[in-house]
TrEMBL record:
Pathway it works in: Pyrimidine metabolism; UMP biosynthesis via de novo pathway; UMP from orotate: step 2/2; Pyrimidine metabolism; UMP biosynthesis via de novo pathway; UMP from orotate: step 1/2
Binding site for 5-phospho-alpha-D-ribose 1-diphosphate: K25, R91, K92, K95, E117, D118, V119, I120, T121, S122, G123, D124, S125
Record: residues binding orotate: T121, R149
Residue ranges of domain Orotidine 5'-phosphate decarboxylase in the record: 235-443
SUPFAM superfamilies listed in its UniProt record: PRTase-like, Ribulose-phoshate binding barrel
Designated name of the protein: Orotate phosphoribosyltransferase
Domain of life: Bacteria
Catalyzed reactions: orotidine 5'-phosphate + diphosphate = orotate + 5-phospho-alpha-D-ribose 1-diphosphate
Key word Cell inner membrane present: no
């Protein structure tokens, strides 16, 4: 402890603690600002910091090191040199040219990566780094931060299922500075008062229940889907990516009691007919589930309208829910002229490796989703606003098909506990199984238990 205390006093003399009125990266207003970047100008302190960090996490527990951009990058670099463990670099955003990679460096899927953060407040930027690294197939076992502001960030990260340690806590360093008479009485009062307020950003709150979410969802189809889920105790949507109507009807008759929604791609059905749709509607009414047409409309408004209402499929005449991309902008879905008994699901973030959507695009897509009254939810790989239902595809119990034809897969527990999703979408795990009814029940049960355990 004495070693750590002496180190902190040295970096304090660099002016890392400032008083005033600051807006932090998390959006929080704060009377104090902690800036550890001056340490980068002191190689001796970077070396000492690396040694202290290595005492917290043994080097044999990770194969790569990554710093949260950009303040933690010099620290991660020093730690890499000190431990002789490779460094990878996470970009804040796609640079738009060259390789267009978000992660730079040499790595392979399945490697364990240690993440370094400088100061943790809400944990938002840290979680974004975690998401991008996991998309690349890397495993996050340990996270280290230099200083914890004790404002909910550590708890937020731990609630997502990650191990995280901090070298210093703000309360701990306050005692060190008090003991050395390095703070004015007014400054001590400001810090203590601020910490006592426990001003924690809403994102750190645990997920809300279906009952609570139903009050925030205004569209009748969104409410109906939640009602079905609660009544049947299922958040499972079956993705019937099959090309023959007879096979789809057989499967739906078998597993209709286990699901709250059936997702179709009608344009792949070789023998599509409206007699098939009529049979499907009867089964959906009897077994109480909604019909999702996963058309992913992605054109200008006029074309989207024609594809929805016309053609041989006449999707608007039978679908309860349709999916749409918003790549063409908000206007592309504003004038679809759909009745109130059809809800929209936007595609904000797909589950495929190499997807082109970056954080900036995803934020814009979510913003469009929130502003359109027809939208009931979105497909994404992260937590979203509680006014949207979150649908998570790529669900599978097995880790052996993590990159099947460019798609990544996750367990139901990850979907609910780490991503706070509301509905899971399962396809080939069910329709390729020898006993779809039993497998569907296994996913129904796992999804419901994961939802209940996510509080």
């Amino acid at each position: 402890m004495k070693d750590k205390e002496q180190f902190f006093l040295k970096i304090y003399n660099l002016g890392i603690l400032k008083f005033g009125h600051f807006t932090l990266k998390s959006g929080m207003n704060s009377p104090i600002y902690i800036d550890l970047r001056p340490i980068a100008s002191r190689p001796d302190l970077l070396i000492k910091l690396s040694d202290l960090l290595l005492n917290e996490v043994p080097p044999h527990t990770f194969e790569l090191i990554c710093g949260v951009p950009y303040a933690a990058l010099p620290i991660a670099t020093a730690l890499s040199l000190r431990s002789n463990i490779p460094l990878i670099i996470k970009r804040k955003e796609n640079k738009g040219y060259g390789t267009k990679k978000m992660i730079e460096g040499i790595y392979k899927k399945g490697q364990k990566c240690l993440i370094i953060e400088d100061v943790i407040t809400s944990g938002d930027s840290l979680l974004k780094t975690v998401i991008d690294l996991e998309k690349e197939g890397l495993i996050i076992k340990n996270i280290l931060s230099i200083l914890d502001r004790e404002q909910g960030g550590i708890e937020n990260i731990k609630n997502k299922g990650f191990k995280i340690r901090s070298l210093f806590r703000i309360g701990e360093v306050l005692k060190i500075l008090e003991k050395k008479n390095l703070l004015k009485e007014k400054e001590i009062h400001i810090i203590k008062f601020f910490l006592q307020k426990k001003y924690i950003k809403n994102i750190q709150k645990k997920r809300i229940s279906y009952e609570e979410k139903k009050e925030k969802i205004y569209h009748p189809i969104g409410k109906k889907l939640i009602e079905i889920a609660l009544k049947k105790k299922t958040n499972l949507i079956f993705s019937a990516d099959l090309i023959y109507s007879k096979k789809i009807l057989e499967l739906v008759n078998l597993i209709g009691d286990k699901i709250c929604g059936l997702k179709l791609h009608v344009d792949i059905i070789s023998d599509f007919s409206f007699s098939f749709i009529n049979f499907l509607k009867k089964i959906s009414l009897k077994k109480k589930f909604l019909l999702f047409e996963d058309r992913k409309f992605c054109d200008v408004g006029t074309t989207n309208y024609l594809q929805l209402h016309h053609g041989i499929h006449k999707i608007s005449s039978w679908a309860d829910v349709i999916t749409v991309h918003v790549l063409a902008g908000s206007k592309s879905i504003e004038n679809l002229n759909i009745p109130s008994n059809i809800g929209l699901i936007t595609i904000s973030e797909m589950s495929s490796y190499g997807r082109l959507s970056d954080d900036n695009y995803i934020r814009k897509a979510l913003n469009i989703s929130l502003k359109n009254s027809k939208v009931i939810g979105t497909v994404a790989q992260r937590k979203v606003d509680n006014r949207l239902l979150l649908f998570t595809p790529g669900i599978h119990f097995s880790d052996s098909i993590k990159n099947y034809k460019g798609n990544s897969y996750i367990h139901p527990n990850q979907a609910f506990i780490k991503k706070n999703c509301d509905f899971i979408i399962v396809g080939k795990a069910i329709y390729q199984s020898d006993n779809p009814k039993i497998v569907a029940e296994n996913y129904r049960k796992a999804g419901w238990i994961a939802y209940e355990n996510s509080f």
